[in-house]
């Protein structure tokens, strides 16, 4: 008998083409985005909640050091591998997905980040034994740093040995006065760790102590001499070196000669020239900050072909040389950059992805920015006199502009309407940024423009009723979440 059920079972099934088309289009968009953003670095706005000052030592923005409290937060522009600091706490930014950090350093012995123990402080005034006795493996899952501020009590040794077994690469900090004595005490009593990061305050005659850490990849050195004539010892694994010498007026040209493998260098000092950089042929990132004196960029001429990040803060001569670095992706211009130099350098560096303008009152016309097709991040610390030019930068993914008064606030709101695809944050130091990755591949954003959610829901509902495409509400929500 030819029943209706038989007729239904023998009828050819209709192929639902729309899901296939959606997948093909999405793949095409992804390939297009990958091509457009090839070689692009991943930068993030990192929010730091807590009471104190935050700074990115690796990049040293002119605007990132500011107070935070319960209501406001500090926000740093950072990329993977940057060294951040909040008060005395050191934070290595290696997890770019964790870009919101709530910091509690109110105690004498522990610093918490997002509710987890980040730093243990060993100081003579505090007794850590009760805490050590309760310590479990999960207690130190997020431990990054041990800060030694005094000699180590003998009763701490078994616990430090246990921590070293579980977290051998824990960062070590020795910054107190008399660091040499504390370091020697550590080496004698508890030399269990193989740290990747070292932060120390030393005089040049104490440099040989650094040779002890063969595994260190990051060194943050606070120089205690105004004149430095000695070189750093050989540190074979060293990749990044941050030199903080606020009172340092001279550094030996051979300072880095034993570590030519360095890839990232940040210099904070009052130097007239930068001959110390000459041995560093593998350098990919250079941050130079001058304190109260005029520097000379002549040492950069025809050198460092691998540089992709070059941030210069302060007053300098030979600024025009910055235009020779065709591979630069992130550039910070000195505060005495002229309008002519700005126009010339931006014309020469057409591959720029991030640009910082820090304190140059001479740069009043920003039209040259429209000639940078790959510009995705822009930081302007100066007063903006050419507001109209920014409206045309439709490809920006991140824009930081001054917000010091009501007029600035109104302009920020206007920019947000004009540049809907950009993360726009004020750089006053309060409530700055959304915490999103900068330069994030906007595949989902583009996909949502091509196929609005209302259309998709209407399609799913219709086909579910006809029995051709069965997807319940939970499945749709799950798919939407996974896409996002």
TrEMBL record:
Domain of life the protein comes from: Bacteria
Keywords: Membrane, Transmembrane, Transmembrane helix
Gene3D superfamilies the record matches: Ribonuclease Inhibitor (3.80.10.10)
Sequence intervals crossing the membrane: 15-35, 433-452
Protein name, UniProt field: Uncharacterized protein
Organism: Flavobacterium gawalongense
């Amino acid at each position: 008998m030819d029943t209706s059920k038989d007729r239904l079972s023998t009828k050819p099934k209709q192929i639902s083409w729309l899901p296939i088309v959606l997948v093909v289009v999405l793949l095409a968009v992804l390939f297009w985005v990958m091509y457009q953003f090839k070689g692009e670095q991943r930068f993030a706005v990192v929010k730091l909640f807590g009471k104190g000052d935050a700074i990115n030592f690796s990049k040293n923005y002119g605007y990132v050091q500011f107070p935070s409290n319960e209501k406001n937060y500090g926000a740093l522009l950072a990329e993977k591998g940057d060294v951040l600091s909040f008060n005395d706490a050191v934070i290595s930014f290696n997890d770019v997905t964790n870009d919101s950090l709530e910091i509690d350093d109110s105690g004498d012995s522990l610093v918490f980040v997002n509710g987890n123990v980040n730093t243990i402080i060993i100081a003579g005034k505090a007794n850590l034994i009760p805490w050590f006795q309760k310590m479990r493996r999960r207690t130190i899952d997020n431990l990054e740093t041990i800060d030694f501020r005094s000699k180590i009590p003998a009763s701490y040794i078994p616990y430090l040995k246990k921590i070293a077994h579980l977290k051998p690469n824990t960062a070590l900090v020795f910054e107190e006065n008399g660091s040499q004595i504390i370091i020697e005490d550590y080496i004698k009593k508890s030399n269990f760790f193989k740290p990747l990061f070292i932060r120390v305050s030393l005089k040049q005659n104490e440099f040989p102590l650094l040779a002890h850490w063969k595994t260190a990849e990051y060194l943050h050195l606070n120089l205690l001499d105004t004149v430095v004539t000695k070189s750093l010892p050989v540190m074979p694994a060293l990749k990044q070196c941050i030199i903080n010498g606020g009172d340092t007026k001279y550094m030996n040209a051979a300072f880095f000669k034993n570590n030519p493998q360095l890839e990232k260098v940040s210099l904070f000092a009052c130097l007239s020239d930068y001959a110390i950089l000459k041995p560093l042929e593998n350098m990919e990132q250079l941050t130079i900050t001058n304190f109260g004196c005029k520097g000379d960029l002549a040492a950069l001429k025809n050198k460092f072909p691998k540089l992709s990040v070059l941030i210069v803060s302060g007053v300098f001569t030979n600024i025009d040389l910055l235009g020779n670095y065709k591979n630069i992706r992130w550039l910070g211009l000195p505060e005495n950059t002229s309008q002519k130099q700005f126009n010339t350098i931006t014309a020469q560096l057409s591959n720029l992805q991030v640009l910082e303008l820090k304190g140059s009152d001479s740069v009043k016309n920003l039209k040259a920015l429209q000639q940078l097709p790959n510009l995705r991040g822009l930081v302007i610390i100066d007063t903006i006199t050419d507001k109209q030019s920014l409206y045309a930068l439709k490809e920006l993914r991140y824009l930081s502009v001054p917000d010091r008064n009501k007029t600035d606030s109104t302009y920020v709101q206007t920019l947000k309407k004009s540049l809907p695809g950009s993360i726009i944050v004020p750089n006053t130091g309060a409530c700055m940024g959304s915490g999103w990755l900068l330069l994030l591949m906007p595949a989902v954003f583009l996909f949502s423009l091509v196929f609005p959610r209302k259309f998709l829901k209407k399609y799913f509902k219709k086909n579910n009723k006809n029995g051709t495409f069965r997807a319940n509400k939970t499945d749709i929500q799950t798919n939407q979440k996974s896409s996002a």
